[in-house]
Amino acid sequence: MTMSKPGEAIAAALAALEDFPLLQGPRVRLRGPREDERDAQALFALFGDEQVMRYWSRPPMQGVSEAHELIAQIRKGMAERNLINWVIADGDDAVIGSCTLFRFDANHRRAELGYALHPAQWGLGIAREAATLALDWAFDTLGLHRCDAGIDPANASSRALLHRLGFVTEGVQRESFFVGERVTDSELLGLLVKDWRAARSRH
């Protein structure tokens, strides 16, 4: 019996997933989006909000049809194992945000983290709880070595959240993405599994 390389094990683990992993926290859970009106309306409320989209790499949604298209894209991405885009659901199973692992590189055992949360939930520690669920799964279940994140350098609250999670700012890519006609830099942050586990052991 030959032992598989870590990268092969990660690729196999992703391929073996039947659906979105269901991750349960104290106040929220991460689940896959459903192709129904309730989830679509909630995602439109999220990604149609100008406050949420201020630092996003696309303009706010203009109609719920875009949310239906997003759900289809998310489910396609999961089927192709290009990304795992969970919705963040509250205790009533209502969608209040989004949390994503994407740009998987099994050979180098890394992925990128993204998230968004409805403004009504800001300042309550919800984004941190959701990101912690995703990172625990990425490092402890999937076996990643590193997780990246990219933010608009003006997004101080997102930087603060990532730093609390243990991410370290590693540099800035100049003028790396457009929102409409506005070009912005991208602050690059990274989190290593050893730092994540050390931080978790202190809490």
Layout of strands and helices, then pairs:
Elements: H1 6-16, E1 23-24, E2 29-31, H2 37-47, H3 50-53, H4 64-79, E3 83-89, E4 95-105, E5 110-117, H5 126-142, E6 146-151, H6 156-165, E7 168-179, E8 182-192, H7 193-201
Parallel strand pairs: 5-6
Antiparallel strand pairs: 1-2, 2-3, 3-4, 4-5, 6-8, 7-8
Helix pairs in contact: 2-4, 5-6
In a nutshell, what does this entry contain?
It holds the Pfam family Acetyltransf_3. InterPro entries: Acyl_CoA_acyltransferase, GNAT_dom, Ribosomal_N-acetyltransferase. The chain contains 7 helices and 8 strands; from the N terminus they run αββαααβββαβαββα.
Any idea of the CATH class? Alpha Beta
CATH superfamily: Gcn5-related N-acetyltransferase (GNAT)
Instruction: Note the total helix count.
Output: 7
Instruction: Enter the CATH topology name.
Output: Aminopeptidase
Main sheet overview: 8 strands, mixed
Broad shape: globular
Strand content bin: 25-35%
State mean pLDDT (0 to 100 scale).
Answer: 94
Which structural class should the secondary elements be placed in?
alpha+beta
Count structural domains.
1
Physical arrangement of strands within the biggest beta sheet: 1-2-3-4-5-6-8-7
Low-pLDDT runs of 5+ residues are: none
* Cα-to-Cα separation, first versus last residue: 39 Å
CATH-level-2 architecture:
3-Layer(aba) Sandwich
Alpha carbon gyration radius:
17 Å
Order of helices and strands: HEEHHHEEEHEHEEH
Number of strands: 8
The percent of residues in helical segments reads 25-40%
Organism: Lysobacter gummosus
Protein name: GNAT family N-acetyltransferase
Pfam families: Acetyltransf_3
Domain N-acetyltransferase: 28-190
